[in-house]
Specification:
With about 130 residues, the protein is α/β, with parallel strands linked by helices. About 45% of the residues lie in helices and about 15% in strands. The chain contains 5 helices and 6 strands; from the N terminus they run αβαβββαββαα. Strands 1-6-2 form a 3-stranded parallel sheet, with no helix packed on it. Strands 4-3-5 form a 3-stranded antiparallel sheet. The chain is globular.
């Protein structure tokens, strides 16, 4: 119930930056949609623009890329989307950004389980001082 209320509050607030969110709380667009999030409500990392492709799937792309893709008829730009502020120096975040890039290019072959294992390994190393 609390998660539903929180999600509703975030959606109603428009563009929001969620500071201090851990990297494992963030999922690439495809994984968010697989979990039941509608394409128009996918959360992108700060600095990325949400687009809904012509096939109905979501993509988080850089703003310049969004303009080019829109001009080419690739999809629609979703204004006022929710963004998530995460530590971009975190190796897990770099892995997620790479995964998002591959998904946008249609080349993702890494399963959600592998990505989660990478995140867990990265967090374990951070906690142990490694």
């Amino acid at each position: 119930m609390q998660k539903t209320i929180l999600l509703l509050a975030i959606i109603l607030a428009g563009t929001i930056s969620l500071a201090g969110v851990s990297a494992d709380a963030f999922k690439p667009p495809r994984q968010q949609m697989d979990a039941g999030v509608p394409a128009e409500e996918v959360i992108c990392m700060t600095g990325y623009q949400l687009m809904v492709k012509n096939d109905g799937s979501a993509a988080c792309v850089l703003p310049d890329t969004a303009e080019r893709l829109f001009s080419a008829g690739w999809g629609e730009i979703i204004e006022g989307g929710v963004t998530m502020d995460v530590d971009t120096n975190d190796d897990a975040v770099k892995d997620l950004e790479e995964q998002m890039q591959l998904e946008d290019e249609g080349q993702a072959d890494e399963s959600e389980e592998k990505v989660e294992k990478k995140i867990s390994l990265s967090e374990s190393m951070d906690m142990s001082g490694g």
